[in-house]
Amino acid sequence: MGESPEPALAEAMNRLWAKFLPQLEERVATLEIAASALASGTLSTSGKQEASANAHKLAGVLGTFGLNEGTELAREAEGTYQGDLLSDPGAAERMAEIAAHLRALLASRR
Amino acid sequence: MHRILIIDDEDDIREVAALSLETVAGWEVMVASSGAQGLIRASSYQPDAILLDVMMPGMDGPATFRELRKNPATAHIPVLLLTAKVQASDRSRFADLGVKAVLVKPFDPLTLSVQVAEVLGWS
Question: Which of B52, B54, B60 shows the shortest CA–CA distance to B79?
Answer without folding.
Answer: B52
